[in-house]
Amino acid sequence: MESLKTRIEALTQEIKATVPATKEELEAYRIKFLGTKGLVKEVLAGMKEVPADQKKEAGQLLNAFKLLAEGHYESFSHLQENSTAGMQLADLSLPGADRPPGTRHPLRIVENKIVEIFEKLGFGVAEGPEIEDDWHNFTSLNMPADHTARDMQDTFYVAQNPDWLLRTHTSSVQARVLEEGKLPVRVICPGRVYRNETISARAHCFFHQCEGLYIDENVSFADLKQTLYAFVTEMFGEHTRVRFRPSYFPFTEPSAEMDISCTVCGGSGCSLCKHTGWVEILGCGMVHPDLLRNFDIDPEKYSGFAFGMGVERITQIRYQVNDLRLYSQNDVRFLKQFRANA
């Protein structure tokens, strides 16, 4: 036991006298004292020679010695390779590095512009859930039970439940507004919608819409046209021409589609307008009387109009984006082009 104490005292003095100045000297210390064949393990191996009645005292002595050797090594850990010692640290007194400003997504830029225009015309903004039930998305909007839009190949149903689905249009938000029973109603409903489409340059399984609804006494088709004329003038310029074509939608009667003169070629013909000089931008019409009855609104007293447009379509016309997939690919090269428009 005495020889073990003497050995530990000598090594303790040697450890304390060792002051590494470089990482190489520190590594040499580790190998000499803490390595697999180092002096610490050599001393610990002498435990087997200690008499049984002295093992407790020897164990405490050896443990203290081991902790001393390891602690001495750790006190110089700043010399190791992963240390910041010797490295040139950042000068915190220098000005910060410039970072390029971010930008809004082009779809958000256009959607905000659409909402801003209709807010000037007295429309409020209404939003609703993207997971809808059949009543708000189809039935209440005068959609026949056998309408093709209800088919699985056109609509995403939730967990094979025929009553729950991802909304196919933001008209469902209009249904929820009418359900509240507060008249008159004048709202614009922006939001994302989903349809089971094959993804390509011209189609996507999700896209964005802005739909509008106005219901009050004595609302006419002339009010609808004047509202949409004002929108086109604000969005595309006062020289943009407009035309209406008869169409059909289950929730409006009469119904129409609205075209504007091509803003790219000025009506002379290009790939955007398919060489017709006209570009379709939205569908519209007078709210069907049966739809009003679905919400206990008297069609003899109240009338109204509705319209809906795709935000991607308006963005395509404004910025000549010819591939819908670009909107959702998060390509910074594409997105940063709209920095000036944010």
How would you characterize this protein structure?
By secondary structure, the protein is α+β, with helices and mostly antiparallel strands. It folds into two domains: 2-79, no CATH class; 106-341, Bira Bifunctional Protein, Domain 2 (BirA Bifunctional Protein, domain 2), CATH 3.30.930. It is built from eleven helices and nine strands.
Looking at the overall shape, the CATH architecture of the largest domain is 2-Layer Sandwich
Q: Structural class, judged by helices and strands?
A: alpha+beta
User: What gross morphology would you assign?
Assistant: elongated
Enumerate the strands of the largest sheet in spatial order, edge to edge or round the barrel. 1-4-5-9-8-7-6
CATH superfamily heading of the largest domain: Bira Bifunctional Protein, Domain 2
From the N-terminal CA to the C-terminal CA, the straight-line distance is: 81 Å
- Total helix count? 11
Q: How much beta, percentage-wise?
A: 15-25%
In short:
The chain is of the alpha+beta class and 342 residues long. It has 11 helices and 9 strands.
List keywords for this structure.
single chain, 342 residues, alpha+beta, BirA Bifunctional Protein, domain 2, 2 domains, seven-stranded mixed sheet, two-stranded antiparallel sheet, 11 helices, 19% strand
